[in-house]
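Help needed: design a sequence for this.
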């Protein structure tokens, strides 16, 4: 069974079909099949135009769930989104960026999902809709493990909401992999720094690929508040600040290397924020 609804209301009704799989951009859906054929019902939501696009009101920037990474790159957004734009350019090839969606990246919930650290650092919330209700939860609570989220089978991720309190913040995204392009990261870091009067007034630091779920380093964020914006800001980061991370050994890197790489990336990202100031 293949269903391609034209409206959100129609789509959420189809979610009642037992075992139905959601298809948006397809950039994760089809590779995951390998040589297998599709044997479960498919709900193709790629035609829901109401879920694509970026808008703003007085308090939030809203990114529709079917907004592509190319859309993100091209959109005129405040500088706090520079890290998200940088991450968008790292999502596979240009062809993948043209098809892959923000909602798909989050719902796939890979520990190496490029979009997650920048959105975590922006205090993003996700909007989930079913046939009976719509709810919003913080992104930090939405992804609960490797390929696991709080999305119920009867829900679609319809939008991501980012508070505008960080509009004037500087942001940086850095990623380390075994090669420059088309790579699954060894570590990646998103930094958002808000300043006033030459000092840090708020900081958001998120690290991906070093735990089953991307992590915010809240102790480091607190320690950075009040720090002067000057060369050497990255030197304030210590190994103790990386305690929330739980990197693993795999074919890409050892856990120790991942931890060392993350420390270096965070320091470089903070120093880059100082340079942009």
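Sure. Designed sequence:
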């Amino acid at each position: 069974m293949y269903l391609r609804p034209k409206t959100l209301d129609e789509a959420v009704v189809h979610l009642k079909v037992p075992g139905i799989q959601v298809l948006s951009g397809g950039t994760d859906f089809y590779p995951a099949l390998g040589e297998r054929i599709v044997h479960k019902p498919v709900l193709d939501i790629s035609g829901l135009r109401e879920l694509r696009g970026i808008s703003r009101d007085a308090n939030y920037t809203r990114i529709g769930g079917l907004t592509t990474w190319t859309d993100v790159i091209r959109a005129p957004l405040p500088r706090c989104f520079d890290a998200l734009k940088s991450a968008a350019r790292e999502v596979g090839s240009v062809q993948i960026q043209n098809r892959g969606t923000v909602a798909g990246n989050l719902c796939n919930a890979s520990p190496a999902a490029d979009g997650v650290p920048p959105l975590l650092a922006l205090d993003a919330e996700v909007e989930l809709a079913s046939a009976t209700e719509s709810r919003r939860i913080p992104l930090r609570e939405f992804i609960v493990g490797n390929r696991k989220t709080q999305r119920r089978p009867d829900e679609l991720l319809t939008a991501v909401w980012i508070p505008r309190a960080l509009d004037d913040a500087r942001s940086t995204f850095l990623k380390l992999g075994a090669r420059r392009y088309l790579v699954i990261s060894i570590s990646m870091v998103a930094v958002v720094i808000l300043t006033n009067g030459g000092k840090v007034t708020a900081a958001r630091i998120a690290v991906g690929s070093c735990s089953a779920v991307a992590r915010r380093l809240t102790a480091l964020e607190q320690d950075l508040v009040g720090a002067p914006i000057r060369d050497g800001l990255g030197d304030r980061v210590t190994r103790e600040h990386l305690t929330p991370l739980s990197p693993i050994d795999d074919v890409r890197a050892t856990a120790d290397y991942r931890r060392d790489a993350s420390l270096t990336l965070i320091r470089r990202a903070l120093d880059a924020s100082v340079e942009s100031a």
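The domain at 169-276 is CATH 3.30.390.50 (Enolase-like; domain 1).
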